[in-house]
What does this fold into?
Amino acid sequence: MPCVDVRVQCPVFDSFRVQQIAGMFDVPLAERAVQRFRVEMPELDDDWKIGLVVGPSGSGKSTIARRLFAGRLYRRQPWPQDRAVIDGFGELPVRRIIGLLTAVGFSSPPSWVKPYHVLSNGERFRCDLARALSRGGGVVAFDEFTSVVDRNVARVASAAIAKGIRGGRIGCRLAAVTCHYDVTEWLQPDWVVDMATATFQRRCLPRPPIELEIVCCRRRAWEAFKRHHYLSGSLSTAARCFLALWEGVPVAFCATVSLIGKKGRWRISRIVTLPDYQGIGIGTAVTEAVAELHRGQGHRVNVTAGHPALIAHCRRSPRWRAVGVRKSGARRADRFLRGYRSAVGRAVVSFEYLGDRRADPIFRSSSEGQPT
It folds into this structure.
């Protein structure tokens, strides 16, 4: 098997303190410090989508990545301080930018119009990744992958990116470089270079299932979610509310309302997934679980979608059928709810849930629970 062998060196500058350290810790001094990194691995062909270079700090992973991918190693560029992140992608069309941001799990329009420096670490990481992947075609190598985010965000972001690349929504291959081994099963790489052992392995592990618990909740749970809803609307006082928990942590909120004058007809009025958990389908899984619960009670359920990701899912899925499209109209404020903004004025599609929800190997949900 061919060997990637890299020798790096740097000058050692003599000084009084350098001599002190050499004497105190018996450090041999030379004109240059030299280090060598090597790993046996085959030549990479084009038959892969995602690769991972992983290892502890100082193990040579960035050095090996630079040798393998040369000029394709992404270098972070500053974001404009006085413009929204949606304006930080050069001349790309807005639909392409929205597609990239959604594909990496940054699906909150209210945050798209904010400048980069006010976003959370998790949101900044996803913006950097979307910008790196906006090059399209070929390979993008991304160093310090998930290094600046907490580990829940790292897992979800890795799964979102893998889903986007393998689903064809991101038109390039990714080589992630990181010191964190915990992203491996969520990123599902086709190959892994482990610099701790200097080994190469081909693999594509199945992603761990995400077990969601869906419980009835009180309206006050909406407070943690409402600022992330793209309509920024109030919640109907007649809404039935549901909370999705992952490992006991609230991650998504769903609300339904009955349609006035239409017995047995309900509408999903709110569905919000917190930013740290976007991009892996939690929102659609919760929507369908709640719709299934209503169908079990003899109800028909609709959802009116304006977000491109939800529209795309419902159009692809046999569990939904389109029942109406509205592309234009004057925006209006609802006269009964202060601050409410309706779907009028936006391109929206209405879908009816058909049921026959088959088991999803990625999501497991339970509808048992008490109001909280």
Summary: Residues 210-366 form a domain with the Aminopeptidase fold (CATH 3.40.630.30).
